[in-house]
């Protein structure tokens, strides 16, 4: 299912959905970012045909669409794996071990940055690798993202085990989110078409709750609004 | 006396199914709507002004004042845009907030839109957080189904539509005018100001752009009153804020406290710096805010306190680094980030961040001379205040502050012909089972 060549032309359903995205906005061009996410979901990457389709729907030039597609790092002009693995190597995660994780994964998968690992005999799924910037989960450092789901507090060993599980087709879940779907399925959610996985995973991960747990233990809370506030709203 | 920690936005995070409408409503969620609808929009603006709420996205501009800049005599539609593009290195508060309690954001969007008389609002979420986007999409859908969104909300005659919009990977889109470009389907490059977005923002219409945490703070202000909010925090920095501790601390995580708490107090709660190590340097508000050291443990973490000590409160993103970390390595990596994320529109930032990386990489590998440090400072001088937006300014902060506090460490790289630190000692697993 993952290796079917993408049809060059977008199918009618996808074209209709691209129009649906544009119609969400007062001005259709505002839909371009989610539309390009949908192109990736349908075709596995930003294709010339996808660019032409967006341009035709929005009545702008293909060059303008291309200019947008090349600006944002989530748009891929070459394919990625079924599971796109992003290792945070911004300063804090790098220091906490992200550099070591990224190096280990490059060695293990025998690829460089932004490349797809070879599909071995017996692998049912492919994996690609990229180093990414801060993904807003610093309290879970070092952080790895898979198809833009959080894999918190990783080590080189846990990261290798994870990519191996993914390649052979085992189910892997985000450490505070749902069972991982494929990159193309995730791109469809980003285009604004929910996939029904919203209720998987917890309300919050462990680190997110660090302060709240202390407040609960010690009986701390925000002031009771029914008690007269201690200070006037505008003093001085 | 106000408690040391004051969970308001984080209060729901330990609830089972915290993201569901039923959970939020059981705790009084969406009750602020009827309070607001009984007031005039101007009175809602006044309430937020009186509360002293200042923008939680970094700049700290008074939220109510921003709203009052919307020219109500302008016949064009008004828009509210929520900046949920959280990408500043170290900042990690809005993402768990939207994942655990998305309805407080949606309720805040409704109240804020009502105040500025907008009938259309957008929540621009960075694309790299699929599950967070799912949760916000679902919260908006639930709010529509319950009659909190759509037409004639709660019978008030007020209509509002909300669109959840996913970005596509660009730090620069956290800059408000670059975000508008992204939302208009263009390359995310900042706009020249004036005109400010309040006058000519999205589609050249009057637009308010606020951070997630700012908007999410509005329901409790409307419900509990400006005085309640102002009873937390300090004189000019009122209310509660989420402080994000990360790095070499025993218990990294989110701590919601009145503004003005100190790092010493927060570290105390978080169990201190990791076992057997000492604090070396930290960022008070993300990588774009000048570095602090152990000297600054007692600086009140409010807008004035941090500015007075030479940095910025920013997003309260406290990244903690202990003595095993090479400051040159840290600053080089941040500089590589700014170089990568520079949008290319203006020369000081596009070229300047490139040169910073060149010079820092040379120094880190022990090449160059002491004069390179002066040249680095000179380069920073040529970026700071000359770049088109705050990205360029931010890029200079770690460089200048690290040279100020750790000049000797830069020189040690030159003396030793390379980095004197072992990066393996800084990892989360250092001292446990070591991996090659």
From TrEMBL, chain A:
Coiled coil: none annotated. InterPro entries: NuoE-like, NuoE_dom. Pfam families: 2Fe-2S_thioredx. Transmembrane segments: none annotated. Residues 216-236 are annotated as: Disordered. PANTHER family: NADH DEHYDROGENASE [UBIQUINONE] FLAVOPROTEIN 2, MITOCHONDRIAL, NADH DEHYDROGENASE UBIQUINONE FLAVOPROTEIN 2, MITOCHONDRIAL. This is NADH-quinone oxidoreductase subunit NuoE. The lineage of its organism: Bacteria, Bacillati, Actinomycetota, Actinomycetes, Propionibacteriales.
TrEMBL record, chain B:
It catalyses: a quinone + NADH + 5 H(+)(in) = a quinol + NAD(+) + 4 H(+)(out). The keyword Signal does not apply. It comes from the Bacteria. Its EC number is 7.1.1.-. Its cofactor is FMN; [4Fe-4S] cluster. Residues 328-373 form the NADH-ubiquinone oxidoreductase 51kDa subunit iron-sulphur binding domain. Keywords: 4Fe-4S, Flavoprotein, FMN, Iron, Iron-sulfur, Metal-binding, NAD, Quinone, Translocase. Belongs to the complex I 51 kDa subunit family. This is NADH-quinone oxidoreductase subunit F.
């Amino acid at each position: 299912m993952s290796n079917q060549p993408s049809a060059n032309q977008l199918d009618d359903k996808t074209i209709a959905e691209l129009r649906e995205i544009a119609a969400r906005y007062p001005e259709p061009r505002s839909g371009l970012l989610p539309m390009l996410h949908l192109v990736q979901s349908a075709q596995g990457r930003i294709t010339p045909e996808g660019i032409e389709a967006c341009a035709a729907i929005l009545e702008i030039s293909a060059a303008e669409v291309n200019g947008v597609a090349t600006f944002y790092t989530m748009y891929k002009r070459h394919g990625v794996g079924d599971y796109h693995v992003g290792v945070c190597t911004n300063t804090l995660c790098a220091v906490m071990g992200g550099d070591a994780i990224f190096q280990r994964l490059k060695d293990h998968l025998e690829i460089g940055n932004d490349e797809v690992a070879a599909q071995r005999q017996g692998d049912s799924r492919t994996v690609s690798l990229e180093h990414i910037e801060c993904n807003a989960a610093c309290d879970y450092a070092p952080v790895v993202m898979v198809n833009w789901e959080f894999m918190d507090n990783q080590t080189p060993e846990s990261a290798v085990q994870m990519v191996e599980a993914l390649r052979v087709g085992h189910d892997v879940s985000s450490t505070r989110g749902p069972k991982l779907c494929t990159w193309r399925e995730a791109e469809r959610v980003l285009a604004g078409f929910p996939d029904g996985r919203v209720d998987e995973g917890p309300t919050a991960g462990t680190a997110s709750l660090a302060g709240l747990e202390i407040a609960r233990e010690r009986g701390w809370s925000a002031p009771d609004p029914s008690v007269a506030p201690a200070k006037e709203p505008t003093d001085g | 006396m106000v408690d040391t920690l004051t969970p308001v936005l984080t209060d729901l995070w330990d609830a089972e199914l915290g993201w569901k409408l039923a959970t939020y409503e059981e705790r009084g969620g969406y009750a602020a709507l009827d309070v607001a609808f009984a007031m005039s929009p101007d009175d809602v603006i006044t309430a937020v002004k009186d509360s002293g709420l200042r923008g939680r996205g970094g700049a700290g501009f008074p939220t109510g004042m921003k709203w009052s800049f919307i020219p109500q005599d302008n016949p064009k539609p008004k828009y509210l845009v929520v900046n949920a593009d959280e990408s500043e290195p170290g900042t990690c508060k809005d993402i768990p907030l939207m994942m655990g309690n998305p309805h407080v954001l949606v309720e805040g969007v409704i109240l804020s839109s009502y105040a500025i008389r907008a009938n259309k609002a957008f929540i621009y979420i960075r694309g790299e957080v699929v599950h967070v986007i799912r949760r916000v999409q679902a919260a908006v859908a639930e709010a529509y189904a319950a009659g909190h969104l759509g037409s004639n909300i709660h019978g008030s005659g007020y209509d509002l539509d909300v669109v959840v919009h996913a970005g596509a990977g660009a730090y620069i889109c956290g800059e408000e005018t670059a975000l508008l470009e992204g939302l208009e389907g263009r390359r995310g490059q900042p706009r020249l100001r004036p005109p400010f977005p309040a006058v000519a923002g999205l589609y050249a219409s009057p637009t308010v752009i606020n951070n997630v945490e700012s908007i999410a703070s509005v329901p409790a202000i409307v419900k509990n009153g400006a005085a309640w909010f102002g009873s937390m925090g300090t004189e000019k920095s009122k209310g509660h804020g989420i402080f994000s501790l990360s790095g070499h601390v025993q218990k990294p995580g989110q701590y919601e406290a009145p503004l003005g708490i100190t790092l010493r107090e927060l570290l105390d709660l978080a169990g201190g710096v990791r076992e057997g190590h000492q604090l070396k340097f930290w960022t008070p508000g993300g990588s774009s805010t000048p570095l602090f050291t152990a000297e600054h443990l007692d600086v009140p973490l409010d807008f004035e306190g941090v500015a007075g000590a030479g940095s910025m409160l920013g997003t309260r993103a406290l990244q903690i680094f202990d003595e095993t970390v090479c400051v040159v390595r840290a600053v080089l990596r941040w500089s590589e980030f700014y170089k990568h994320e520079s949008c290319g529109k203006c020369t000081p930032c596009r070229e300047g961040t490139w040169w910073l990386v060149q010079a820092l990489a040379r120094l880190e590998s022990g090449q160059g001379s002491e004069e390179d440090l002066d040249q680095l400072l000179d380069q920073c001088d040529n970026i700071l205040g000359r770049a088109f937006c705050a990205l360029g300014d931010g890029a200079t902060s770690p460089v200048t502050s690290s040279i100020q506090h750790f000049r000797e460490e830069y020189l040690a790289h030159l003396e030793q012909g390379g980095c004197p630190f072992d990066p393996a000692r800084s990892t989360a697993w250092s001292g446990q089972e070591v991996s090659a």
